[in-house]
Amino acid sequence: MMLMSKDVKAQQQATTLPGGFACNTKWIPSEKRAHYRQLVEALLHAITERRELPDGYSFRVDNEHLTTDQLVEWVNLERQCCPFFGFKILWEPENGPVWLELTGPQGVKDFILDEFEFR
């Protein structure tokens, strides 16, 4: 019988919840969680437009509220707690707007709306 660490057990529990989606911030290193929460708040304030995609949403991000470096940092942390997300960052030409795409399997759109309180 193979013994699993608590971290492995926590990850398995998080990924097997009904609907298949769970944000498990315990996968973000504890020393980075406060900063992660700050980035989430900044991101929520930076979103100026939302477009529905077949498998998620695209968000226009205002660089006055969240720099692209901070956006990339948020993606790197978010990938740890929500591994089911697909991410794309698009920088439009001529210093145009920056877009963040969040995508995933069926049902992820409802999760995004609930998780980011967009309803």
Topology as a string of helices (H) and strands (E)? HHEEHEEH
* Weakly predicted, low-confidence segments: 1-18
Order the strands across the largest sheet as they lie in space.
Answer: 1-2-4-3
Structural class: alpha+beta
Query: What is the CATH architecture descriptor?
Result: Orthogonal Bundle
Query: Regarding CATH, which class?
Result: Mainly Alpha
Annotation, overall tally of beta strands: 4
Q: Please tell me the total number of domains.
A: 1
**How large is the radius of gyration?**
15 Å
Main beta-sheet strand count, sense and barrel state: 4 strands, antiparallel
- What share of residues are in beta strands? 15-25%
Mean pLDDT: 84
Span from first to last CA? 45 Å
Percentage of residues assigned to helices: 25-40%
Tally of separate helices? 4
Q: What shape does the CA trace take?
A: globular
CATH topology: Arc Repressor Mutant, subunit A
Question: In terms of quaternary structure, what is this?
Answer: single chain
What structural keywords apply?
119 residues, four-stranded antiparallel beta sheet, disordered N terminus
Report on the structure:
The chain is of the alpha+beta class. It has a single domain, classed as Arc Repressor Mutant, subunit A (Orthogonal Bundle), CATH 1.10.10. It has 4 helices and 4 strands, in the order ααββαββα. β3 and β4 (98-103) form a beta hairpin. The N and C termini lie far apart (45 Å).
